[in-house]
Structure formats: structure tokens, C-alpha cells
Specification:
This protein has 153 residues and is an alpha+beta fold. Helices cover 33% and strands 12% of the residues. The chain has a four-stranded mixed β-sheet.
Length: 153
């Protein structure tokens, strides 16, 4: 497959460290990923001590669930999801901050989206000679709870 990005887009990526590629993914693909994420959350049964992800702890001391999530698919709650008594303040589906970190290898819909010639071409266009998918996340933007997600790469 040939190039997908033009020179201006590549320069923008080099300058800014990120790039928005309008209409890269079809509406159908996005809806399929959203449905897959909703199914993961629906099937998720929180452990006794659920893992909370905080956007303001970049150098965090991670809990066991977070540390073992690299090779699995785990759900992480918003910091404000639980009341003082330890119960969820909102329904589970509105309390999850993100799902991570091996969706690209362990969920068929995310795998289908990740391993495409188009995505490989974009990686090549920005100079990644041998790009590997090492981590994938589905980040929710829940109403009324949740922290700011600052710039990160």
C-alpha cells in the first residue's frame, strides 16, 4: 500500500508529536469498536479492590491489576466512581475510565482495526520502519466524573 499521509501531515506530526487524520476510520468501524468496548464493560466483574486510574498520577505506584494489565484486557474505574462507603456512585457503564492494554491482541474487533495495511502505512509514513502494537486503550469520557487527560505519547 502506498502513502496515506501527505507531506504537510508528516511535517505537522514531526512538529507537534501527534496528528489527527480526518475520516481515517469509517463510522462502521468506530461503532463496532464502541460496541466491543461496551460488551467488555458489560461482562466485567469488578474485583473486591477495583483498580482506579487517575490522570494526575503519571508516576504512579500502580496496583496489581494495573501492573498485570499489559498482557490482558482490564477495566479501570474513574477516581470519583466510588462513594465513601465503597459502592459505585453511578452505573458501572458510566464509571469506567478506560479499558487496556492488550485489546489489539485479545479482542477480535480491536485486532481487526489494529492490524490493517492502512494503519501500517500511516506508521511507515511517520518514519516507523518496523512499527509494533504494544499497547492499546479505549478511553471513555464519562459525564460528570473523570479527570483531564493531559498530552501524552
Amino acid at each position: 500500500m502506498g502513502r496515506i499521509l501527505d507531506n504537510e501531515q508528516i511535517e505537522r506530526f514531526d512538529r507537534d508529536g501527534y496528528l489527527v487524520v480526518e475520516d481515517f476510520a469509517s463510522k462502521e468501524s468506530c461503532l463496532a469498536l464502541k460496541a466491543a468496548a461496551e460488551e467488555i464493560v458489560d461482562k466485567f466483574r469488578p474485583p473486591t479492590r477495583p483498580s482506579v486510574f487517575r490522570t494526575d498520577e503519571q508516576n504512579r505506584v500502580s496496583d496489581r491489576e494495573f501492573l498485570k494489565s499489559g498482557g490482558g484486557v482490564s477495566c479501570f474505574f474513574e477516581a470519583e466512581a466510588f462513594g465513601e462507603d465503597g459502592t459505585l456512585r453511578t452505573p458501572k457503564s458510566l464509571s469506567i475510565n478506560k479499558i487496556g492494554h492488550a485489546l489489539h491482541d485479545l479482542d477480535p474487533e480491536f485486532e481487526r482495526f489494529t492490524y490493517t495495511p492502512q494503519l501500517a502505512s500511516v506508521a511507515s509514513d511517520i518514519g516507523m520502519a518496523d512499527a509494533l502494537a504494544l499497547q492499546s486503550m479505549y478511553i471513555f469520557k464519562q459525564p460528570h466524573i473523570g479527570g483531564e487527560v493531559g498530552c501524552n505519547q
